[in-house]
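Continuing the series of single-chain predictions for the mutant panel. This is the parent chain; the variants come on the following pages.
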Amino acid sequence: MEKEGLKRSLALLEERGVTLDCIVTDRHPQIQKFLREANITQHYDVWHMEKGLYKKLVKISQDKECVKLKKWLRSIKNHIYWTAAMSTSGPERVAKWSSILNHVQDIHSHEDPVSPSVCICNTLLGTRANGTPAFCRLEKVLTNKRVLKDVGKLSPHYQTSSLESFHSVILRFAPKNVVFPFLGMFCRLYLAALHFNENTGRPQATSSTDYVDNLLDLIFHKVFQDPAPYVKEVLKISIPADLSANYEKPDKQEVIDRYVWRFNEGQGYVKRQALYACNTCSPKGGEAAGVCLACSYKCHEGHDLFELYTKRNFRCDCGNRKFTELQCKLHPDKDEVNTLNKYSHNFFGVYCTCSRPYPDPDDQVEDEMIQCVVCEDWLHGRHLGRVVPDCVELQEMICELCMNKNDFLWTYADLLAVSGAAAQVKEETGGESNTDARDKPQVDDVIEPGSKRSREEAESSCRLKELPRIGQTRLRAGAVFWPSGWRSKLCSCTTCQERLSQANLSFLLDECDTVLAYERKGKNSEQTQPGHDPLMSALDNLNRVQQLEIIHGYNDMKTELKDFLQTFAAEGKVVTPEDIRQFFEQQQSRKRRRVDDGSFYCA
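Parent structure:
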């Protein structure tokens, strides 16, 4: 959306005869590529870059060995603004930015001739800071390749602060969690622009502003008295077609058939598939049962469904013995019970160790849900017993309960897992703790038999037995996060394969078992099929919370519209356009009441 908005804005400026010298934006990758291909000079907004770096440094300063960094946070923030404002070229910005590493060591002469030769700052890390964990981690963040490249493109003059302020004003007139028709949004944007332009640069108001009084006079004394001329002007506004109008709506039956082929071919135990639990057919207190995506459309349309996301090695229960009054419309001949299926409290609509529903109407805390790759339960981030790391979407998580059930996984975690606040590494031969990544033995040097050798060639030695000799242990508490590719580093000797098989964890040796691999395969499959709908791809790009909100909103509206029309069918009345208009006006008024009550929150 950011890229499309920029393209339309640039087209409008070009149409109005405006020539661009440069443009200041945030560091959005698609925007970077688009402007580079269009040969438009791009600068980065300082505030956006400072905010990203500040978050990383705050997180580092929370570690025991990096507490001193807290004293430097404000100075580093000021330094990036000074770097942008006092430099005339990209290389000069990079040189001045890099000089901060000398400042923290009380070194005030710089090898780079572009940097200033005299400094007026005080040392805070100490004259012997070089080589300490705090300095090494600070250096790693500040001299990151991408950071240095982006520092060279910082805007020396114009920033996006005014635009950010205007966006905050727009949100007051047009909240994100409310959908407005085109004319409604158009008018609200005009009001936001009027309000912003009228108040920019003025001193703090002590009384009602004149422009508000003028607007109210116009509305009450002119518009309300004779609305016809104003309505005529509004109707002249050209309303563009919906974005979805450019695409042909796919046939529902074809979509269902495609998902049947994708997830349930052969009706066996599917390696990984999207599942739902039907609260209408198997309510709490009965037997747990799961249905596939195709059956949720075909056999359970209009039912109260719980989304379970994906489960491994599961066979659809729809129409078997657990559903006494329902026969599967897609595959009527079903076994009475699927003995290899595994069930949990998720199948009754509750998740995490707190056994609460999602979304939880009684929980006002915004928190992400993360799935354990072993038990496949979803847990709140605050109930994991450790801090959730960055880029969690590219990692896998095993909850503390599953780690304790399979004690040997803690041995792997000593070297393979992502470090975190609840995972301090200690030297067994000494008393000091050290979380510095440079002092940590490389996993590949210790347990990898060779980058080009296969698992079979490593059968002669057990990697798991080699790990305890390294002399490092991890605090065995809290959930454990594993980086991408960690499964390939697990030992696959005969003994370890038997151990994993007995614990029902053989899937850990399969790198195609991951949810990321499943999603990648699904996207590739849909894109290669004829009649691929770009709108479905747009829905896939939304996060899980946004997808759920759209699905729940659609289902609620469909149910209410169905009930509304049934009253006309029962009385034999004809539905008129006025009836439909009245229905949607009632929906809109309910939405406004919900917004006013504060029950909706911006995603």
